[in-house]
């Protein structure tokens, strides 16, 4: 049986990832730091090592020279360039936190296949469960989507993925990457909505030392980090006009120029972009460049919302509950709870469903989930509009901020959250960092 060594200093992550991988037929050993990992390596080589970049006693990359097993690095969004650098030094791949468990499984299995000498083609994806490419369900809409992904995944064309928040656009993008000729290169995912407006260009294109206050050293941008692989720009509709212009220039000539630098360099990436916005309306209103839109929309994929594929709800629910399976088996949905899931409108789509089931699994006694455990309105479908931002008098502002963000981030992007809270996107980003609330 395939054995994974998981190294992460956060116990909840170790437990959740280990449980998920074991459910999918893998054997998992865990370590909280380099010292413990080295002790386990001394007892025998794993088939794959999955290590966090930052550990209490060093960096996960220090294990690269201490094992013959392929190493996959887990990293925060801010450390993506460091993870890509690790790939240049021998790491097999990386995945940015917070990650979807299905995306992690796809990454690990692709790495194991490469080690075995298999080609990353469509047939190789069949072991992800019902040939689903990580996109679970059997509705006509999701089957058609998987067929489209297989057809265009083999190309180098730019693809625009369209769909509501929480539908699985990044999973679709990762599947396109793994089926294509760049599967052996990096996959760099960037959520444009989470980067403060004043830092977007520096994050994407990099910056020279001294380019602005606080730029104490030069930094590679996320576009350059994807060289030889795939760049996925999520929430592309949130890019400011200046960043749109620079991105268009890059798409035209393949060159980037870091902020504050006079030197340009060629970068070779396949670009995938995603949005939940009506870009055509934004173009008419002057909020998005028409020339950039046509550059991005060479091919287009539409990700169906969950309410349009209700037959997939039970399949997805069983899948998410199986991820939380313990020795006694996965939590059980009562018929009433399952009926509530089927009636709900799911404005936050698959992500909202996963969150509701996680809540239910935690709150349900004796692993039997009733409607009350799901946190959904049992009397009517959930409204798709934002919740009222008026905090109760008895709630502190910090507690209210956390509560409002957690309850609404599955159905609202960063711009909408900031507007509802009456703050700027930059302030929202800074508060997320202080409160340790990364975008899911």
Secondary structure elements and their pairing?
Layout: E1 3-7, H1 11-23, E2 27-31, H2 34-43, E3 48-52, E4 54-55, E5 58-59, E6 71-76, H3 80-88, E7 93-97, H4 101-116, H5 140-153, E8 159-162, H6 169-179, E9 187-191, H7 200-205, H8 222-225, E10 230-234, H9 241-253, E11 255-256, E12 265-266, E13 270-275, H10 279-284, H11 290-296, E14 299-302, H12 313-323, E15 332-333, H13 335-343, H14 349-363, E16 368-369, H15 397-408, H16 414-421, H17 425-435
Parallel strand pairs: 1-2, 1-3, 3-6, 6-7, 8-13, 8-14, 9-10, 10-13, 15-16
Antiparallel strand pairs: 4-5, 11-12
Helix pairs in contact: 4-6, 5-6, 12-14, 16-17
Verbal overview:
By secondary structure, the protein is of the alpha/beta class. The protein is 40% helix and 14% strand. It has 17 helices and 16 strands. It is globular, with a radius of gyration of 22 Å. The model is unreliable at 118-130 and 380-395 (pLDDT under 50).
Multimerization status: single chain
> How would you name the CATH homologous superfamily of the largest domain?
P-loop containing nucleotide triphosphate hydrolases
Helix content: 25-40%
Strand order of the largest sheet: 2-1-3-6-7
- Helix/strand structural class: alpha/beta
Per DSSP, the total helix count is 17
Radius of gyration: 22 Å
Average pLDDT metric: 83
Biggest β-sheet strands, sense, barrel? 5 strands, parallel
CATH topology of the largest domain: Rossmann fold
Query: What share of the residues does DSSP label as strand, in percent?
Result: 5-15%
Number of domains: 4
Low-confidence stretches: 118-130, 380-395
Shape: globular
- What's the CATH class label of the largest domain? Alpha Beta
CATH architecture assignment of the largest domain: 3-Layer(aba) Sandwich
**What is the number of E strands?**
16
Cα separation of the termini:
31 Å
């Amino acid at each position: 049986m395939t054995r994974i060594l998981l190294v992460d200093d956060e116990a909840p992550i170790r437990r959740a990832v280990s449980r998920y991988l074991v459910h999918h037929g893998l054997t998992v050993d865990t370590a909280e730091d380099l010292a413990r990992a080295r002790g386990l390596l001394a007892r025998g080589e794993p088939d794959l090592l999955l290590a966090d970049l930052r550990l209490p006693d060093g960096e996960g990359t220090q294990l690269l020279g201490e094992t013959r097993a392929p190493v996959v690095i887990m990293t925060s969004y801010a450390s993506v360039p460091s993870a890509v650098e690790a790939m240049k030094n021998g790491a097999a791949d990386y995945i940015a936190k917070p990650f979807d468990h299905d995306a992690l499984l796809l990454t690990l299995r692709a790495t194991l296949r490469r080690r075995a000498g298999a080609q990353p083609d469509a047939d190789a994806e069949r072991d992800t469960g019902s040939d689903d490419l990580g996109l679970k369900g059997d509705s006509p809409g999701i089957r058609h989507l998987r067929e489209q992904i297989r057809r265009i995944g083999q190309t180098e064309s730019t693809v625009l993925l369209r769909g509501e928040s929480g539908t699985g656009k990044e999973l679709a993008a990762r599947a396109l990457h793994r089926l294509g000729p760049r599967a052996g290169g990096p996959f760099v995912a960037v959520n444009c909505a989470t980067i403060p407006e004043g830092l977007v260009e520096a994050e994407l294109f990099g910056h020279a030392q001294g380019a602005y206050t606080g730029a104490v050293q030069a930094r590679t941008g996320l576009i350059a980090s994807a060289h030889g692989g795939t760049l996925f720009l999520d929430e592309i509709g949130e890019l400011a006009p200046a960043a749109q212009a620079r991105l268009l220039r890059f798409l035209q000539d393949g060159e980037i120029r870091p902020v504050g630098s006079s030197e340009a360099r060629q970068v070779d990436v396949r670009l995938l972009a995603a949005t939940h916005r009506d870009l055509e309306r934004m173009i008419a209103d002057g909020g998005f460049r028409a020339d950039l839109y046509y550059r991005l929309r060479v091919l287009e994929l539409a990700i169906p919302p969950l309410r349009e594929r209700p037959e997939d709800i039970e399949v997805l629910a069983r899948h998410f509950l199986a991820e939380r399976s313990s020795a006694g088996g996965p939590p059980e949905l009562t018929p009433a709870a399952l009926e509530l899931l089927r009636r709900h409108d799911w404005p936050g789509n698959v992500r909202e469903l996963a969150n509701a089931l996680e809540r239910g699994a935690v709150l349900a006694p004796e692993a039997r989930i009733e409607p009350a455990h799901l946190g959904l309105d049992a009397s009517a479908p959930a409204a798709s509009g934002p919740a009222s931002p008026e905090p109760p008098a008895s709630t502190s502002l910090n507690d209210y901020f956390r509560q409002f963000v957690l309850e609404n981030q599955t159905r609202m992007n960063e711009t909408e959250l900031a507007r509802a809270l009456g703050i700027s996107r930059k302030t929202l980003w800074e508060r997320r960092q202080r409160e340790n609330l990364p975008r899911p």
